[in-house]
Amino acid sequence: MTEGTTPAAEGVDTLSRLEQEGEIAADYLEGLLDIADLDGDIDMDVEADRAAVSIISDSTSRDLQKLVGRDGEVLEALQELTRLAVHRETGDRSRLMLDIAGYRARKRAELTELGTKAAEEAKGTAQPVKLKAMTPFERKVVHDAVAAAGLRSESEGEEPQRCVVVLPV
Description:
Structural class: alpha+beta
CATH architecture of the largest domain: 2-Layer Sandwich
């Protein structure tokens, strides 16, 4: 808490800062969509103490899939560029999350299921379960699912081959 502010004021300051990040990101992404001549609407929210911005489309067009790329590689790059645009405007490092065409939401559901199954396997075999290499976002989702199942997990290895290991009780 900063000197002279109340806890409630601190929370409001954080919320307004995250909303500002979302606004800056939305403006940046709208410009990108215009340049690329792609249709999409921007949705902003604050989730888990970070700004969350989504690009969604009403059309069945696969245009937005170009912005996701293979295994979300383009999405990850766009997220970093968007974070840099926010940093340039605010001077603060951003933890903003970007989703395009629901890719991250679908990926989160798949990874939660993977983490839950790995936890069940570790419980059943009493052996550690090592998963394939994942991005930081993917590992975080799996760690959360394993914790929700009542087990511990840890990451091991070096990027880009860093993976989650689910530990038995």
